[in-house]
Amino acid sequence: MAKTLGPVRRKFSPWNDPTAKPLIEFRNVVKRFGDFTAVDDVSLGIYEREFFALLGPSGCGKTTLMRMLAGFEHPSEGEIRLAGASLAGKQPYERPVNMMFQSYALFPHMSVEKNIAFGLVMDKMPKGEIETRVQEMLKLVKLEKFAKRKPHQLSGGQRQRVALARSLAKRPKVLLLDEPLGALDKKLREETQFELMDLQQELGMTFLIVTHDQEEAMTVADRIAVMDHGKLIQVAGPSEIYEQPNSRYVADFIGDINIVEGRVTAIDGGLIRMEAAAPRVSIVMEDDAATSVGATAWMAVRPEKVRISHDAPIETGVNAVHGEVWDIGYIGDTSVYHVKLDDGGTFRAAVANVSRTVERPIGWDDRVWLTWSKTAGVVLTA
Amino acid sequence: MKKHLIASVFVSGVAMATGAAAQEKVVNVYNWSDYIDESILEDFTKETGIKVKYDVFDSNELLETKLLAGKTGYDVVVPSGNFLGRQIQTGVFTPLDKSKLPNLKYMWPVVTDILAKYDPGNKYSVNYMWGTTGIGYNVAKVKERIPDAPLDSWKLALDPEYVLKLKDCGVMMLDAPDEIVPAVMNYLGIDPDSKKPEDLKKAAEYFKKIRPAIRKFHSSEYINALANGDVCLVIGWSGDIKQAASRAEEKNKTVTDPKKKVEIGYIIPKEGAYMFFDNFVIPKDAKNVEEAYAFINYMMKPEVIAKASNYVKYPNGNLESQKYVDKAVLEDKSVYPSLETMKKLYVISPFDQKSQRVLTQVWRDMKRK
Amino acid sequence: MSTEKSRSGRFLLVGIPYAWMLVFFLVPFLIVAKISLSTSVMALPPYAPVVESLTDLWRKIGEFSFFNYLRLVQESIYVESYLSSLWIAFSSTVIMLFIAYPLAYGMARAPKAWRPTLLMLVILPFWTSFLIRVYAWIGILADEGLLNWLLVSLRVVDEPITFLATQRAVYIGIIYSYLPFMVLPLYSSLEKMDETLLEAAQDLGCTSFQAFWRVTFPLSIPGVIAGSFLVFIPAVGEFVIPDLLGGSDTVMIGKTLWEEFFNNRDWPAASAVAITLLLLLVVPIVIFQNAQAKAQEAGR
Q1: Predicted local confidence at residue A70, as pLDDT
Q2: Superfamily of domain A257-380
Q3: Would you list the DSSP string of A30-81?
Q4: Is B198 exposed, middle or buried (0-12, 13-18, 19+ CB in 10 A)?
């Protein structure tokens, strides 16, 4: 655990390099099951050594996309390329890709070491080498003592490690992780996330993870693709996804956010002015969103970027709303205030609990002002 | 004599359940299958008010096993002679109170005398029917294959020279070791009643020569097979072969092609044949003894037993009844053999434990190809 | 009070199966075992000594003998019958495995909506009495029967093949009658198998065929064993099928036992045959189960 935090995420952004060639390429991939379109025209490049996350609610098509890469499903249209070669017609066992299954899919009739060795045996690797590799893998996932056990004699966390070791044993070009941590409790999950990151760094492999847990995606991934109804909504790094969501869907899916609908009244040198009806508020944001005067737009601001105060701000007409504290969520490191606005609707503000006592704490039913700066949020057009 | 074991096991279960029924008068009878004119039972009930629960079996072995297990629930059962003999020794039957059987006076001394060999002094049993074990054959098919067929001799069935010629048209035999093995010994000039293992084995050794001709050993299927023309020669019971003959006659009426008509003959071979007796006895643990006497006595009425013989084509042990037996049946020498022929018939004494075991083993070998 | 009550309730619940085993298995077994040590006599009942009470048993213990068991070894027919029965049961079990496995596999992989119907089709024959079904085979297998009619009219053969009263007919009868008992355990073990295991195997480099042999089949072994026991054990002691469909050449222990009981009326010998058959079947099963339990223990 000493090095679980691992190396700080390095400067790694081949997707910004026009000369870099992606390892995996989805080209206009469509997958239909009968009338249902599970994956709808997805084009995506994933680069070597990248830790890439497919994020979305269940049924958004992320698992189907991954299964097509593994070879369990075949695209209805479009093609998938790996290292420059098309995967069309290749069976799962012909692809240099391994998958760690959500259910782990450990072979119940085989011991831990036999499970790990399975892929190597199928590759007809010499016996001695298999043994060495299995030992190496057992050490990697810290299960040396459990080599002879059967899966049903292991805890959930241990099984997860066996599954991981088994999928890594063949040193695939790409490791696919299908909700790999879904069955673990929160604490173990968080630890394992960091271990996964370390592992990926150490092995220098490309990881593709499917998850519905946005925190997990944010933690582990270099880039995240947010999916909805079979479509890619936004593909970007975690901070960009968080700070610069390209749509209300992404903004809402990732973390907590206040969204106010309004009409654009002026666009002026990097400033967008909006008027909102509910709540009644004038908004000025520093944003270069592609919108026009008279159009409907949305201002989105994260709760932690909203200031909450008993006192009215100096300029009450802009980026400020007032109301009554309706609920306070104490999360430990922060408190989230749910404020019922006088003009209708609610607004949330998060305050870090920096000091142990506050001179005049904001309590239930207090009348408060909520304000945010021009740079605190974004203007969304969709 | 094992036929359809399972069927009879099911049927007999019913008797156990109904045996101890209400107060009404009942007699539980356990007889061979296809061995009575059912209207006789109705007449009996009409006359006496006693209901008859009538179950059937088709092998002496089955009956014996039930008797030895005890509590059969039956009041009247009908074992065959050699089985009767050894069953009497075990004490499963009640000695008959002859004052309750006035109709005994009609019995045929020729039959009761032979029966005394199994039942000394006729203390336990009253004969119901008897018969011979002989050869049944398809007249046309046998003549076609063996123009000079010896139609009065065991040679036809036991000499390989003849019987092997009949292989293609089908030969069947009773699955009854206590009848076939003595018949072979008799043919070989050995005492048919011999119980010596070496004699029994001699019969088995000889039998190998004719075994290839035999299609099947079965104690009831041959009736239909013979009537339909599926087999052309059987060793079977006289009454059964007569039944096959009359079934064939019935069928001939509907057949126009003369070649397809079937005519069945029955031979009591001149070398002598086995004579069997099926006899009424009362088990020791019978519940309705009075009703059992009433039933046996009723069956000994000359008119009644004559009606039975007319139906099943077996001769009975009741001399007076011969006045009432149909002429066609009475004068048929293959049903009622002449007294001269009867002298040549033989009976078999019971097999004891040891010889029975040898017999079973010999029979198993004989049946194997 | 209430714990007292629930404890006695639990005792009752656990006790019922034991009582059942005692009354319907152990007691009859002991009675038959006792008869097997007696001597056959012409009496009612046809064996001696007859034991009337436990003290009686003590007094007569000297009269018991192992003669009947000795005979089983001395007379070749018994050894032959046992071996022949075991062989017929074994080979028909193997044949059934080959027929039932694809059947069960197909059922387990069929669309979920079809499965109850398919299962029903397998169970359907049970709605007709076993005996009637075996009798029906007489009609099918006869020289002039349905099967020969079909074979001749399809010109597969020129002359009818004799099925009835041959070993072939016994195999057909046994396989037909017991097949469902093989299919059902196989189906249940195949049906509950996680299909992602197969995907995992393929992902790790198996073709579908290899995945079957390395994953599906090993995991269905409990079903294979259960099905095999379910058909092998009754097939060894089968009497009705060889009696109705087989000929004089089919020697099976069930028939030999029948002859011992009905033809020789030797109840003690018949009992010895039955007890030996039981031991012949139970002992290997117990050894096998012990071995399995140990194997599981070792895996821990």
Answers
A1: 95
A2: Nucleic acid-binding proteins (2.40.50.140)
A3: EEEETTEEEEEEEEEEE-TT-EEEEE-STTSSHHHHHHHHHTSS--SEEEEE
A4: exposed
Which segments of chain B does DSSP mark as H helices, in order? 5-19, 38-48, 60-69, 81-90, 109-115, 139-145, 155-158, 160-163, 177-187, 197-207, 222-228, 238-252, 289-299, 302-312, 327-330, 339-344, 353-367
Looking at the complex, does the CB of residue C248 fall below 8 Å from at least one CB of chain B?
yes
Q: Under an 8 A CB cutoff, do C45 and B6 touch?
A: no
Residue in B closest to C43 by C-alpha? B90
The minimal CB distance from C42 to the residues B5, B353, B361 is found for B353
Q: Which residues from chain B sit within 8 angstroms of residue C46, using beta carbons?
A: 68, 90
Q: In chain B, how many domains are there? A: 2
* Whether C243 and B5 lie within 8 Å, measured CB to CB: yes
CATH architecture of C75-265: Orthogonal Bundle (1.10)
Q: Does domain A14-96+172-248 have CATH number 3.40.449.10?
A: no
User: Using CB atoms, which residue from C196, C205, C207 is nearest to A101?
Assistant: C196
Q: Write the pLDDT tens digit of every residue in A111-121.
A: 999 999 999 99
- Domain residues for the domain of B328 are 5-131+276-336
The domain ranges of chain A are: 14-96+172-248, 257-380
Among C44, C77, C131, beta carbon nearest to B361: C77
Burial of B278 (0-12, 13-18, 19+ CB in 10 A): buried
Q: What is the mean pLDDT of chain A?
A: 89
Q: What is the pLDDT of residues B176-216, one digit of tens each?
A: 899 999 999 999 999 999 999 999 999 999 999 999 999 88
β-pairing, A281-286 vs A271-276, is antiparallel
ipTM of the complex: 0.83
Asked whether residue B343 is domain-assigned, the answer is no
pLDDT for the residue A358: 56
Q: For B230-281, what is each residue's pLDDT tens digit?
A: 899 999 999 999 989 999 999 898 888 888 889 999 999 999 999 999 999 9
C132 touches chain B (CB under 8 A): no
